[in-house]
Predict the structure.
Amino acid sequence: MSARWTLTVRSGPRVERTTFPALPTALARLEARAGELAGGVSDRPAAKRMRFTPEEQVLARLELAGPERLLPRVRVGVDVHGDGSVAAYRGRVRRKVIAPERGETPYAALARTLTDSADRAPGS
């Protein structure tokens, strides 16, 4: 069975899942879809009764899981905030922000983290 990556996009009540046979294709789609969602952010807060600033609100979450199907070893993604900013993270339940290095986009930081993880994997 070949490796496969699943991209899950959660935006409001909608959930979209797409599978990809290769990691570079999945990363490219994650970046494109996050860009679409960040570009469509309005200036007003998502909920008036909530007292969160736009940069604290998560309007969309994109998660990439794989390469295994049932118990993915890798779970990373990006959050699209209410101000249109994007933050990369790793983990699922306990998410840890991936800080971009100088001059690096959140997407490049995500790709770097995946490359670093693959280099440290046992048997490689």
Summary: The longest strand covers residues 58-66. Strands lie at 5-11, 14-20, 58-66, 74-81, 86-90, 96-97.
